[in-house]
TrEMBL record:
Pfam families referenced in this protein's UniProt entry, alphabetically: ABC_tran
Membrane topology listed for this record: Peripheral membrane protein
GO process annotations (BP): carbohydrate transport; glycerol-3-phosphate transmembrane transport; glycerophosphodiester transmembrane transport
GO molecular function: ABC-type transporter activity; ATP binding; ATP hydrolysis activity
Location in the cell: Cell inner membrane
Keywords per UniProt: ATP-binding, Cell inner membrane, Cell membrane, Membrane, Nucleotide-binding, Sugar transport, Translocase, Transport
Name of this chain's protein: Carbohydrate ABC transporter ATP-binding protein, CUT1 family
Domain ABC transporter: 4-235
Membrane spanning residue stretches: none
GO CC term (a single one): ATP-binding cassette (ABC) transporter complex, substrate-binding subunit-containing
Major subcellular site: membrane
InterPro entries the UniProt entry points to: AAA+_ATPase, ABC_transporter-like_ATP-bd, ABC_transporter-like_CS, ABC_transpr_MalK-like, ABC_transpr_MalK/UgpC-like, Mo/tungstate-bd_C_term_dom, NA-bd_OB-fold, P-loop_NTPase
Species name: Rhodopseudomonas pseudopalustris
Amino acid sequence: MANVVLRNVRKTYPGGFEAIKGVDFEVGDGQFCVLVGPSGCGKSTLLRMVAGLETITSGEIDIGGRVVNDVEPADRDIAMVFQNYALYPHMSVYNNMAYGLRNRGMAKPEIEARVQEAARILEIGAMLDRKPRQLSGGQRQRVAMGRAIVRQPKVFLFDEPLSNLDAKLRVAMRVEIRKLQRRLSTTAIYVTHDQLEAMTLADILVVMNAGQVEQIGSPLDVYAKPATTFVASFIGAPPMNLIPLDAEGVRARFGGAVTEAGVLGVRPEDLAISSEPPAPGGLTLDLAVEAIERVGPETFVYGTRSPGGDLAAISSKPGELPPDEIIIRIPGQEAPAIGERISVVALRHNLHLFSADGRRRIAV
């Protein structure tokens, strides 16, 4: 096992495109770290740099106390699980798992023991004689993980390993990966664009955007106290409601903090439909219901801001659409009718304030 430390890591491609813009973070020994962000944010590039499949332009990558900038991938003591499984189609499951060990000159009894143990852990012992084409997507992914497990590496690297699976199987495999990592106590770095996957897997969450780290922390901390408006809108489904503010219009309600603030945030579950005013310092919005989504035990209500309420002074920046749509998340199947006008309220401690550029969280 080992910790992984990135120190001011940068990647600039020929032509000047800067894909990674100075990333710093540490994954502790045995921790499960998830890199999450939209497509093109640099998360897979960063993972490939840790693996040694991409060179770094500057900075340091340290695995287990050793700087590995110039170390070949095979010598970094890592194992990687890819999105497309990367299995040899002409080899059996057993040989796919044993191939790397044979190349390293390991003795046959040791190879046999490692493959059988990995097969037992992953419950694929009955499939060792099959070829990849005879397996389902989930079974192929188990084989790919088995090939990584037999290496007994210091660090596991996962590059969107579940993106080719259907929704039900993704959930099952997500649970299996987390159970496996905890059982083996191996440091892991996992890349995904799925924020739900990230939240459920991570010990430490690294939210990336445009080649930079927006926030690092536990999933619950990132959700409860997003550092920027990007994190606030990316982490959470549905996303946080973000409303540009006219400081003069709300100064009395939020006090001195609003002089620095330009954006108010409130999560859909923190808004309640009520005709009663909230406690002092809370928020009231008047909405016209535009759409309803019933998703089992919860209902999402989409409303458009109406004149009135506490935030009559909401404004939009030049070139932006007015921030009229508000999402409310309520329990059960009961919901107002489409076209109905409603009032929603939020308590002050559930509100979030951000600087006008969205790059800084401000205490409410």
